[in-house]
Amino acid sequence: MDKVSIVEGGAYPLGVKNVDTDMIIAAKWLKTISRVGLGKGAFEAMRQDPANVFDDPAHAGSPILIAGDNFGCGSSREHAAWALNDMGVKAVIAPSFSDIFSGNAFKNGILTVVLPQEAIDRLMDVAKTDPIHIDLDAQSVTTPFQDRFSFEIDPFRKTCLMGGLDEIGLTLAEADRIGAYEAKVKADRPWVSAAVA
Amino acid sequence: MTKPRTLYEKIWDAHVVERKDDGTCLIYIDRHLVHEVTSPQAFEGLRMAGRKVRRPDLTLAVPDHNLPTTARVDAQGKRIPIADAEGAEQLAALERNVAEFGVPYIGPTDEKQGIVHVIGPEQGFTLPGTTMVCGDSHTAAHGALGAIAFGIGTSEVEHVLATQTLLLKQSKTMEVRVEGTLGFGVTPKDVVLEIIGRTGTAGGTGHVIEYRGSTFRDMSIEGRLTVANMAIEGGARSGLFAPDEKTFAYLKGRPMAPKGAEWDAAVAWWKSLVTDEGAVFDKSLFIDAADIAPNVTWGTSPEDVVSITGSVPDPESFSDASKRAAAEKALEYMGLTKGQRMQDVSVEHIFIGSCTNSRIEDLRAAASVIEGRHIAGSIKQALVVPGSGLVKRQAEAEGLDRIFTEAGFEWREPGCSACLGMNPDKVPSGERCASTSNRNFMGRQGPGARTHLVSPVMAAAAAVTGHLADVRELMSR
Ligand code: SF4
User: Fold this and answer.
1) Domain A6-165, what fold?
2) Which of B27, B33, B155 to mutate to test binding with chain A, by most A CBs within 10 Å of its CB?
3) What CATH code is assigned to B172-238+267-291?
4) ipTM given for this complex
């Protein structure tokens, strides 16, 4: 995974609440066996509207997306995160995210920044004309106008993102503990330790 | 004295492999269901890193999402390939992957094939007190049997395949208590729609729900599966029911359920899986069963719920500005006007199926309304898609297929079908469907499709009348 520390540049001022995963990437795009190439299907339905932010030359190619409450609700499809990645979005700022989406984003090195609605309103305004700066180490979002908003992030996720760590590799290093747990379950609850004989 | 714990906390504690300083836990995963859509990139990741599947024996793969629901074998008994090239490639990738990594597999022509969330309980793969995952958000369904079950993304699928664990933070707990007897014509689907209508789609975010109260105690396992299935639509990653005698009776004798002395030991442990007296939930919601009527959705979010006797809301009635804007958009998309009576909304499509409502009880309930009637002339397509081959066989043994087909329904092969626009079963743009599935998002059943979520009996009522209708007026008490 690539290391993440600063995300800086333009932002799509989307602002919409409850952006579900079907809106981010519709089901017909899920028939892929690859992680790349989904950017062209991202926000397909919204892009039917000629006034959409994604095709607006003022915003196209932005690394940041600003949205309303409950971003990424709906399905578990990681294709939503892959689609964002493929279109170059490295961070999403919203008042809240669905649990599954924020996990998927994190696994793909996309920052999910939670800020209160007032901050979102201000950033939506700034994003119309100016860039936004996100500093993961400092846990802050700043603008060229001296705005500064702090955000919280899970320390483990922060370490993984900043170090570009491979989570599976980290867990595999704990194989002994996992084996010990399995042995204990086999003794205590033998019926769970083999499903498909 | 130990601190009183909730059911969720008890199962969680039994699965902690390691607790890190910041509270993150390495959690052991007992059961992993795999399907064709969210797994190819995970297996690819393993292959690239030279990793194996740690516990193929705790993993079960089945294709469901993009399989067409038309015949799977020709007259000679030969498998019919998927016409859509990408769909066919995804299925082929799954079959290559399960063979290469030694994962148990139920193929498209196997009678046991079905929607992942239908076959898990049906095979006894799902057990109380286990942790269970699948790359699909409706994995929450398995919580009906008392499992912590939740949907994961593909990177997590890869993590579970490689390590049989996940790094997780413990969720908060939310109690949803419903007390009393459900009214005539009111089903588990109406209960869960009622819950989501009240909490909103983000009301459960960060929480695991435990369904409590007499309504849920009296509910069948299949009804509980319907309720837990939609926990995610209220934002909760899982929904749990404490296992009880109904659970044990349901599981006993299932192919993958424990047998003999192990069964007895399992039941003894399962009986301890109840929330202790005095345990505290972070959030609570209480609903009186008497307040629940047959429900329908009017908008493009599962929280847009209204009773069938109600009407399309006025967007101005929402105090929150963004909710107002969303409602206006939803009405435009749905082609509805404020104040319109829900019962006056005509539909052209009926879909009875999906992991929410495709089990035998659902089909029996719908058939009881259909029997002796015919679908309305204005209905263009009415589909019944059993959740698994075994459900299909059982329904056929009971003659339900004939009731449906004589009424003008199409009787299909098991799969996800028109629940999501990924296989040939879709609702055309601008047309309207009364659907027993779980999501009414824009474009969910196909680009431009308009979805009204309903129970199986309400879908049946819409089929025979040609509009959303109050099933109570069609049923004899
Ligand atoms: S039936 Fe629908 S919700 Fe259920 S697993 Fe299939 S696509 Fe997902």
Assistant:
1) Aconitase; domain 4 (3.20.19)
2) B155
3) 3.40.1060.10
4) 0.93
